[in-house]
Amino acid sequence: MGFKALPTFISLFIGLLIWFVVPVPSGVDPNAWHLLAMFIGVIAAIIGKAMPIGAIAIIAITLVAVTGVTNDSPSGAIQDALSSFSSPLIWLIGISIMISKGLQKTGLGARLGYLFIAVWGKKTIGIGYSMVLSELILAPVTPSNTARGGGIIHPIVRAISTSYDSDPAKGTEGRMGKYLSLVNYQANPITSAMFITATAPNPLVVDLVAKATNSEISLSWSTWAIAMLAPGLIALIIMPLIMYWMYPPEIKETPNAAQFAKTKLKEMGSVSKNEIIMLGVFGILLLLWAGIPAMIFGSAWAVDPTTTAFIGLALLLLTGVLTWEDILTQKSAWDTITWFAALVMMATYLNKLGLITWFSNVLETGIGHLGLSWMPACLLLMLAYLYAHYMFASTTAHITAMFAAFYTAGLALGAPPMLFALMMAAASSIMMTLTHYATGTSPVVFGSGYTTLGEWWKAGFVMSVVNIIIFVVIGGLWWKVLGYW
After folding, report:
1. Could you list the mean pLDDT of each consecutive 10-residue stretch along the chain, which spans 485 residues?
2. Cβ atoms of residues 260 and 473 within 8 Å
3. Which pTM does this prediction carry?
4. Do residues 386 and 431 touch, judged by C-beta distance below 8 A?
5. For residue 420, what pLDDT is reported?
6. What angle do CA 461, 465, 466 make, to 5 degrees?
7. 25: which residues sit within 8 A by CB, 6+ positions away?
8. Which pLDDT belongs to residue 322?
9. What is the pLDDT of residue 155?
10. What 3-state DSSP class applies to 11?
11. Phi, psi dihedrals of residue 123, rounded to the nearest 5°
12. Which of 150, 213, 342, 366 qualifies as a FRET site for 251, CA 20 to 30 Å off?
């Protein structure tokens, strides 16, 4: 069979129960309710890992087209089902994942990590900050946070830990591997919150905010980056200290780590032509995403973020840094485009058919009865949204299922649209801290065996509280200074 029986049965049961048994609430379009039944069934299948997420997406597209819940015309229904494949936001992420292959193929990502360790690696905490700085520099052009934290940074962490005989198989993970692994992982959600292009679901947040505000709030790459800069940097500075306090490494002085990094750099040899090209493309992407040419020469020089990603990929293909074979083998990119398109399509039509508005009104009424002002009411909404991630193994599934309704409810309760958008955007990445299944990076790092489940969950909860305080309090003040609310 191409599916797991139990999770498939559960997701089917949930979908059919909502479709045929649960009565359509007053004021809700029956088609919207039926689409919700399919949507919740799809989310349940993703959470239960009934099939690979791309396969579930194909089935979701098929169901929308066959049932005609969005359009009575068969041709119109399939056009609706496939509509999100033309979304620039989806292609921005897909193309950026392809570009990030260049960081791994050329070795530039690993070289950056070893360079920082060579400079700051004389103490274990210095190695931790080297990992954090590597994460921060790679984040703008690595929309797969799994590739960044699990594919580039974590192998370096393991190599250094092993060099100091910190090995879970020997029971010596506490020497330094536990601390470095937790820093490696906890940096990932913070950097993911700092750039639209730092994790795949961020453009979905941008899209949902724009739709909820009729495009009055349109978060650009530079607006997002500037907004998240101050709270993000403070969170990155504080996090390694908290992990050091919670799980202090037995080895605190690491004079050999710097030499280890220098040896690795020597093995890599001098900087290659392809690394220089990759660095140049990296620079071009950042300049265009930040809108620098438009700032200097005027709006005629503005380049769309998705066009920028295509420019970067085209340059890598033209220079031979990446080949078309490399692109074809980027399964995660094509997979992301497929499932992203399906989930965005379903969320879009739930909104168009009025279901998000109905649900946000229910939330607004429920919280409104508590008699709270907009600030505590919206804080309550955001915390409920964030900690619901204990039930999700996919940030995209979580955001698709809950973001629009919670954000719209917050606006109805009187929250300043830009302030609440940024708070919810930050929470959408901070929720990754919580569990060992919260995002793709977590099973990679947790699976290396350096921490117990209890240690991981404790560190995750503590960092979720610290991060949310930083982003709400310091972020809120920073956004006030910037005039965002």
Report:
1. 92 96 92 93 86 92 96 95 87 80 82 80 87 89 78 78 82 89 94 91 90 88 94 97 94 80 88 93 82 83 86 96 94 84 84 81 81 88 89 78 88 91 95 86 81 90 96 95 90
2. no
3. 0.74
4. yes
5. 94
6. 115
7. 33, 358
8. 96
9. 75
10. helix
11. -130, 155
12. 150
Cα distance between residue 357 and residue 350, in whole Å: 9
Pair 344, 90: CB distance under 8 Å: yes
Look at residue 393 in the predicted model and tell me its pLDDT.
Answer: 67
Measure the N-to-C terminal CA separation of the chain; round to a whole number of Å.
Answer: 53
**Which ranges in 213-272 belong to alpha helices (H)?**
221-246, 255-268
- Rounded to whole angstroms, the Cα distance separating 405 from 212 reads 9
pLDDT for position 247? 93
117-133 burial, b if ≥16 CB within 10 A, otherwise e? Answer: bbebbbbbbbbbbbbbb
Q: Please give the Cα distance from 63 to 41 (Å, whole number).
A: 11
Helix intervals (H) in 435-474: 441-446, 453-469
**195, two tokens:** 């750039």
Residues 6+ apart with CB under 8 A from 381: 363, 367, 406, 409, 410, 413
Residue 208, phi then psi, degrees to nearest 5: -65, -40
CA 40 to chain centre: 21
User: Are the C-beta atoms of 39 and 346 separated by less than 8 Å?
Assistant: yes
- Residue 260 to residue 256: CA distance in whole angstroms: 6
In this structure, the dihedral spanned by the alpha carbons of residues 435, 48, 56 and 29, taken in order and rounded to 10 degrees, is -100
269: alpha, beta or left? (left if phi > 0; alpha if psi -120 to 50): left
What are residue 253's DSSP bridge partners? 123
Q: How far apart are CA 95 and CA 82, in angstroms?
A: 19
Tokens at 136, concatenated: 């921060």
Length of the chain measured in residues: 485
Residue matched to tokens 């619901």: 388
Backbone angles phi, psi at 133, to 5 degrees: -65, -40
| DSSP classification of residue 139 | G
Identify whether the C-beta of residue 350 lies closer than 8 Å to the C-beta of residue 37.
Answer: no
Separation of alpha carbons 455 and 452, rounded Å: 5
Measured from the Cβ of residue 466, the count of other Cβ atoms closer than 10 Å reads: 17
Unique residue bearing structure tokens 């496939």? 82
Rounded CA-CA distance 219/375 in Å is 22
Return the structure tokens found at 267: 């093995």
